[in-house]
Amino acid sequence: QVQLVESGGGLVQPGGSLRLSCAASGSIFSINAMGWYRQAPGKQRELVASITSDGSTMYADSVKGRFTISRDDVKNTVYLQMNSLKAEDTAVYYCKYTVRPYKLTPYRDYWGQGTQVTVSS
Predict the structure, then answer these.
(1) Are 69 and 58 in contact (CB under 8 A)?
(2) For residues 69 and 80, is the Cβ–Cβ distance under 8 A?
């Protein structure tokens, strides 16, 4: 099994910054991709940013230029640096890893427990 532990959420004023972390542990043979999603009240979960095993990144249009996703393969951790935060960034943020737990097993997705980000004055 793979466990994901998120940290770094909280309350921040508009224009402020936060950095989210998501550390993976357990049975990990290889990681295909990591991503951050968010879900605001009454809305569907949406992809915020993702990073592949070769370092390719993609971002939702709403966060381009403000958020940066990065990874530390030694620590099996993915980060989301969020700058210039806006009220509309308020949501529960979830990390997702696409992992092959063992050598001959297929890739599957694992989710973090979610961390609340609230942008408010």
Answers:
(1) no
(2) yes
Residues 117 and 80: their CA atoms lie apart, in Å, by 12
Which positions ≥6 away from 42 have C-beta within 8 Å? Answer: none
User: Each residue's pLDDT tens digit in the chain (121 positions)?
Assistant: 899 999 999 999 999 999 999 999 999 999 999 999 999 999 999 999 999 999 999 999 999 999 999 999 899 999 999 999 999 999 999 999 999 999 999 999 999 999 999 999 9
DSSP 8-state assignment for residue 107: P
The neighbour count for residue 111, using CB atoms within 10 Å, is: 16
Amino acid 41 reads P
